[in-house]
Amino acid sequence: MSSFAEYEKMAMLELSSAQRDVLEKRFHEVSEGFSALDSYDVSGILPLVTVLERHNVMREDTSSKPISRDELLKNAAEQRNADELSDGYFRVPAAIE
Q1: What ranges in the chain are assigned the alpha helix state H?
Q2: Structurally, how many domains does the chain consist of?
Q3: Helix (H, G, I), strand (E, B) or coil at 84
Q4: Which H helix or E strand runs over 27?
Q5: For residue range 21-30, what is the model confidence (pLDDT) as tens digits?
Q6: In angstroms, rounded to a whole number, what is the distance separating the alpha carbons of residues 77 and 13?
Q7: 63 phi and psi angles, rounded to 5 deg
Q8: What's the domain range around 28?
């Protein structure tokens, strides 16, 4: 897209004539500023994803012994007999009425 009218249509803006004149002037100023970047040769430069140093903050993915359902459910807030534990799932208050 290269014209202000195209952006105005895409954004479904309803601008007065005065607003359109002001914004269109500003749009062209910004567009010309960015077109100045076209004069730089950036071939061979990899795109920058972030300016921050990247390091892995995740723990090592290792397998471990799974916890049994009975052991998990003994920590349930509502202690009920096995028939009332909703077939082995945690029972929680309804979030949606």
Answers
A1: 4-10, 17-35, 69-73
A2: 1
A3: helix
A4: helix 17-35
A5: 999 999 999 9
A6: 53
A7: -85, 150
A8: 4-39
